[in-house]
Amino acid sequence: MERTEAELIAAAVKGDAASFEPLVQKYSPRVFATARRYARLEREVEDIAQEVWVKAFQKLGSFRGEAPFEHWLMRLAVRTCYDFLRAHQRNRESAFSELSEPEDDWLERCAAAPDSVNEHADAAKQLVERVLAQMSPAGRLIITLLEIEDRSVKEIAQLTGWSGPLVKVRAFRARAEMRKILAHIAQDKYL
Amino acid sequence: MNLKPLQQKLLAAARAHPPSDRVPYAFEQRIRAHLAALPPVDLAALWSRALWRAAVPCVAITLLLATWSFAPSPVASTTEDLSQQFEQTLLAPADQLEASW
């Protein structure tokens, strides 16, 4: 007979790592998708996912079962990703001089006729990754959650542990930071 | 160059490319092995480490207070003690009453 999620969690709280395995299997795709939003190298993504699961196992006692396990786990995942960004903020890219040719082309076409460019292009994806990599940890987290994942301020506050007004202030600053980075690219390219 | 459309386009590009949710092969087994290899939490060790950490600032504060209490006060030698001043102020009406009798 298959055990319920609550039974698996109860067994894992008592230290049974085998009962934890089905939970890892079920929710790892979400954890990996979240980690891939913030880390580019696959090795870093795996490190983040592993850290999330180790923390989840160690802190499982604090899970009260009032909200779904997935919500609790995603809070842990987002906070682990934020810690990762803060720990690696010195490695942020500092120059746009090494833009690839397709990225350069896409940027030029966007500057000439913004409505005609295709946002599904790989060049656009690479360019946005570059811009996000330049942002501060809090700015990147907020832009990802608010603008890319389309989450509400309340959801972000729950995920990050920040207050609602703090989320709004950080969102305002993050948008300004992103525009500043884009202005820097524009200056490099067209001046 | 107008930055707002560029920003919107880049955010749309990020939305159009959701990250993969692929999990490496046997990842759950790797986590299980990792959890099994974790050392058990030794509460006594954690407690003693916290005590040792707290000992340093405690000693520093003790030394600071001892130095402060043994150091001669420049104010005490020149003026009267606060308790004496307080007593005099409090008993001033009584002194005046005695003088008038």
Question: What does this molecule look like?
Answer:
The complex is a heterodimer of chains A (191) and B (101). Chain A contains nine helices and no strands. Chain A has 191 residues and is an all-alpha fold. Chain A has two domains: 1-88, Rna Polymerase Sigma Factor, Chain: A; 92-191, Winged helix-like DNA-binding domain superfamily/Winged helix DNA-binding domain (Arc Repressor Mutant, subunit A, Orthogonal Bundle), CATH 1.10.10. The longest helix of chain A is centred in the C-terminal third of the chain and has 27 residues, at 164-190. In chain A, 34% of the residues are buried. The mean pLDDT of chain A is 89. Chain B has five helices and no strands. Chain B has helices at residues 3-16, 27-37, 43-70, 74-78, 82-100. Chain B has 101 residues and is mainly alpha-helical. The longest helix of chain B has 28 residues, at 43-70. The model of chain B has no long low-confidence stretch (mean pLDDT 84). Classes of the chains: A mainly alpha (191), B mainly alpha (101). Chains A and B meet through helix 2, helix 3, helix 5, helix 6 and helix 7 of A and helix 1 and helix 2 of B.
Shape estimate of chain A? elongated
Gyration radius of chain B (Cα, Å) is 37 Å
CATH top-level class of the largest domain in chain A: Mainly Alpha
Number of strands of chain B: 0
Number of E-type strands of chain A: 0
Global outline of chain B? elongated
- Our measurement of the CA-to-CA distance between the termini of chain A, rounded to an integer number of angstroms, reads 69 Å
Helix-strand makeup class of chain B:
mainly alpha
Spans of at least 5 consecutive residues with low confidence of chain B: none
Quick one: biggest sheet of chain A? none
What is the oligomeric state here? heterodimer
Radius of gyration of chain A, in Å, reads 20 Å
Q: Supply the CATH superfamily name of the largest domain in chain A.
A: Winged helix-like DNA-binding domain superfamily/Winged helix DNA-binding domain
